[in-house]
Amino acid sequence: MTVTLQLPGALAAYAGGQREVTVEVASPGSAAETPEQTVAGVLDRLAGQLPALERRIRDENAVIRRHVNVYVDGADIRTLSGAQTAVPDGAVIDVIAAVSGG
What we know:
The chain has one domain (2-97): Beta-grasp domain (Ubiquitin-like (UB roll), Roll). It is 22% helix and 23% strand. It has three helices and five strands. Strands 2-1-5-3-4 form a five-stranded mixed β-sheet. A hairpin with a 2-residue loop joins strand 3 (68-72) and strand 4. The relative contact order is 0.24.
């Protein structure tokens, strides 16, 4: 199962300059079924590929940082099941760093 993460320019530096990162996770029905088919599972896999990027998305307790917004196929995971939101094969996960100022 393949998932694509789309990154803002500010995070692309932690992915070798790439704005898109492909993450392979266990397919449904495999021995390692359920945990990897969630946002948390995808981010766990990302930690193995690009640990510096994953640390910008989640804190030391594996909680998505407050200033980072995550969308699965356009749906805000905060209105779904948070990090336990299901991720279908071929999904696009948008990672957006919140901008603030005044």
